[in-house]
Amino acid sequence: MRTLIAIMAAALLVISMGTAGAVPDTLKLSVDEAKSLVGLVVSVANPAKDIESMQMPDDPNFLFFSATWASPAGEPMNGYFGVNPATGDVWDIACHHESNPALRHAQAEIKKRFALPTREYKRLSALKPIC
Questions:
Q1: For the CA atoms of 47, 52, 131, 85, what is the dihedral angle to 10 degrees?
Q2: Which one of 22, 73, 104, 130 counts the least CB within 10 Å of its CB?
Q3: What is the pLDDT of residues 15-60, one digit of tens each?
Q4: Taking Cα atoms as reference points, which of 27, 20, 38 lies closest to residue 87?
Q5: What's the domain range around 76?
Q6: Is residue 14 assigned to a domain?
């Protein structure tokens, strides 16, 4: 009987965790926080930008955004980004891991705030969005 209870408890735990990359909502960035990280990436090219959240149901472990900004030639430039809400890692549509000093500083603050165990942080940080 104890074995059956233990198996049922383990099954419920696995079901409640969802996908392999799932983390509790308390250890995830909000959409607005993730949007601000994309802003840190885009502002390197041009501080005038418009960033909108996108739905990507095929990849529930990331928050996705489209960004538009003016180019020197006057034509709008577009970029698409995925943000890991557990680590703050930002990826562009070509699966390039974005990085700049302001973004790294913000990511260090996120890492401190969530205080994930090192092994879990590394596992989550290794995840890439669908690109």
A1: 90
A2: 73
A3: 333 344 567 878 899 999 999 999 999 888 776 678 999 989 899 9
A4: 27
A5: 26-125
A6: no
